[in-house]
Amino acid sequence: MQERVAAISSTLNRYPDREFTALRNLLADYLSGVLRREGRPTALQAPVPSSISPDMIWAANGSNEVLFHILQAYAGPGRSALGFGPSYSMHPLIAQSTGADWIEVPRGADFAITVDHAVDAVRTHSPDVVFLCTPNNPTGNSTPLEVIEAVYDATDGIVIVDEAYAEFAGPDFRTALSLLPGRPRLVVSRTMSKAFAFAGARLGYAAADPGLVDGLRLVRMPYHLSSLTQAAAEAALAHPDSLLAGVQELSRQRDRMVAGLREHGFDVVASDANFVLFRGVADPALLWTRLVEKGVLIRDVGIPGSLRVNAGTDAETTAFLTAMAEILSTHP
Ligand code: PMP
User: Fold this and answer.
1) Interface pTM (ipTM) of the complex?
2) 94 CB near ligand 1 (under 6 Å)
3) How many CB atoms lie within 10 A of CB 19?
């Protein structure tokens, strides 16, 4: 990355490639690889597409900006966006910042979204945009492809599948990328912030029908992706295995935390992300404070009786589990 950034530094007097062509090609290659590995079995209805073409790719400074572009283009005043809460807190804020109304439909038991529940919500509210976050932040559980297909069929609006944490998911996870062919209103959003450990560089991306992507060109600021961002991301995508090397270790730490928390009797939501939501906490604010006093910072995401903890290094997991054991032995 340093070499690539140094190499282009003498060209910074010029505007960047506003079509981010090289980056777009690399993102298309990366997602095509994901699809080959994770596309759903061909036995189910539609055939799995063999690749994602560069004209299906959009990118921006973080997937928050990708989502903002989608909402700017396809939501706005007089329109509405619907999400299934609890979910990523920026979805309503981004939607409302375009002037759209936000409709929040509660998730079902164990934060799941079922076909009937989702189709009913979409038919009742007729939103212009539907968000499905899978794996879901902050709960960690994923939504089956059948639900995404059913939501798509039940609406004539845009369906955004936010797969920010997809690389951390277990083998049962199926990416919605495989649903793209023949679904011109579907968009799958991803980010290099999490699995690629690239949050500081700000690179989010999405795949969708080229026509949907074309609409995003109308709302982005001219030259929104700097040459520096493009060069760093291109270098990163040329070495995906090195950048994604942390994913396996983080997933291992997540699973250690799940096991440790279950041993303590907490109700842990099965997580496909790099964090774990655990329920059955009598006083989340108090437990959070006690952990901070022991030098461990986790998140109170405001879900009653719950706290969320992020996967980190082996030493961090040990510190968290040790602190929890100490706190629970003195304040059971
Ligand atoms: N989607 C989800 C579900 C997230 O949790 C986040 C970050 N917390 C984002 C999108 C945005 O990430 P970024 O802008 O860094 O790509």
Assistant:
1) 0.99
2) no
3) 11
CATH number of the 245-330 domain = 3.90.1150.10
**Which residue blocks in the chain are alpha helix, DSSP H?**
2-8, 21-38, 63-74, 90-97, 115-125, 145-154, 210-217, 227-237, 240-243, 245-263, 284-293, 314-330
* pLDDT recorded at residue 42: 47
Same fold for the domain at 2-240 and the one at 245-330?
no
Of 191, 272, 310, best ligand 1 pocket probe by most atoms within 8 Å of the beta carbon:
191
Does the CB atom of residue 63 touch ligand 1 within 6 A?
yes
Whether the CB of 92 sits within 6 Å of ligand 1? no
Domain boundaries, the chain: 2-240, 245-330
What pLDDT sits at residue 331? 80
Does residue 308 sit in helix, strand or coil?
Answer: strand
pTM assigned to the model: 0.96
**DSSP class of residue 140?**
-
CATH number of the structural domain 2-240: 3.40.640.10
